[in-house]
Amino acid sequence: MEKKLNFARSGFLWSAMLFLVLLLVPFFAARFYVYILGLIFARALLAMSLNLLVGHGGIYQFHHAVFYGVGAYTAGLILAKTPLPAGMALLAGPLMAAVAGLIIGLFCVRLNKLYFGMLQISLGSLVWIIALRWYSLTAGDDGIHGIPVPDVISGATPTYYFLLFVAAACLVVMYLILKSPFGVTLRAIRDNPQRCEAVGINVRRHQLLAIVIASFFAGVAGVLYVVLEGSIFPDMLFWVLSLEIFIMCLLGGWFTFFGPVVGAAIMVFLQTFVGSYTEYWTFVLGIVLILLIFFLPEGIMGINFREWARIRSRRASAQAAD
Amino acid sequence: MDVTITFAGFFSQVLVGLSRAMILFIVSSGLSFILGVLRVPNVAHGSLYMIGAFTAHGIAVLLGEGMVGFLAAMIVAPLVVALISLIAERALFSHLYEREHLMLLLFTFSLALILGDLTKMTWGADYRSLVAPPVLQGSVSIFDTAVPRYNLFLLVVGPLVAVALYLFSSKTKIGKIARAAAVDREMVGAIGINVSWVFAFAFVLGCFLAGLGGALVAPTVSITLGMDHTVIIEAFLIVIIGGLGNIWGAMVGSLIFGVSQSLGVLLWPQFAIVFPYLAVVVILTLKPTGLLKSVW
Q: Using the beta-carbon criterion (under 8 Å), do A283 and B113 form an inter-chain contact?
């Protein structure tokens, strides 16, 4: 028990230190890297919100990109096409994403596993088609670019800080949710849904709530992307992106809290740096992924923790032998 | 929205939908077969379909775009795709069967990423089109409607594939073994059958059908990168609404998908593509496990 507490405390310490370093980044890093970090924050939040469902809830959320896209489109369209205040646009994004999560979730929670995922893909594709075909509103394939972002958070450094603070706040909230009784129940449902049902937990309602929460955070990630890039386009809700989010979680590790963040960072890194050397970066990604599936199925964070635990237990038993 | 629907327009749209459904059936029956036996959603299926189309085009151009070149393309292109899938299965996939579903799904996705980029490396990002041989060009007049000959050709090929696949899986020994392995792989292994090769066979057969679908669709569309992305989602949804692993389910699903889209063109052209997805939502809401019996 005491050890666990220790670990939590040291994890907190590391996170705080990382946060401090990230606070200082704009003072010494080139503008390009500040931008890349911003992109990582948005993607990391997106991957975290998926992990909330898949890793902790065992829910096959196959089309998570839809909620990211809904958040981004809502905020982007309000900013670009209406005179409403910007703050409202930034709030409306996540709220609309949560509403979309509620509607799609209501249909999906009645089904299990693969069927859940496929129904979600089909409902999500409907949303994607609307974004793609409603030219007068969304400009279809081209998307909308150069969306005006409020002055307070435009420009490289202010944008960076906005993204950092929002993403960090969301991570803290997600951490608290996962620590709360609700989070524990969610994991219990993942591990044994029948038993949970038997002890009187409303499984479907918990899953639905989890979907709404995750969709909300995906919507926040979408808004962050709009603030960073100033553009929206239909690929943001395409199923390929949904699988890419899965890959981020796989890269970092499913069952760890920070795994998806690491995965998102690796993914953005690959996309940017490998992408600058060759146009075939998805080829490289495919190879990396296959290697990972074969040799590191628990992701990078997964192996770290396992190794670390083994060393610790060995040390502990050595001490006990003394 | 004032819509006037003439009988001729209706009839020709139905035929367009039916021939589209035949392509979808060939692709999705392969996917369904793999899902039924291996229980793996093969995301690379769309990429194999695309490779089938590109290969068919390459062969047809190589042999001159006559009847010989066309037939050679229709036969060799699926075989090339089958060979690719055999290599991928034996070298990589066969070592992963014990893993979780999600892992297998991600594996096939990484395969799709690799195959997609290999296609780009080999053929580039240009648009191509394959010209059908003279016999299959032009159209015939049925009920005063001009029906493209190639569509009629597809309407013959599709049911033939369905019957062949049905006879194969229910009448031949290897087909029966494959179905048995789908239900209980341990038991099949226990009576002395090499399950790993049964799986390899099922996977390769499914991928062959993807290649065949790609080759057959080649003369009707512009062959380009990205044609894999839409077909794979459509095929998945067809398999789900039809019932996993059920060949006739794939047929029913394909018909619903193809015809609802082509009739949607009459009602609301801009959003015609919405109708099949709506149909899927309605079906899955009413009957979550698909219209016909699933083998799972």
A: yes
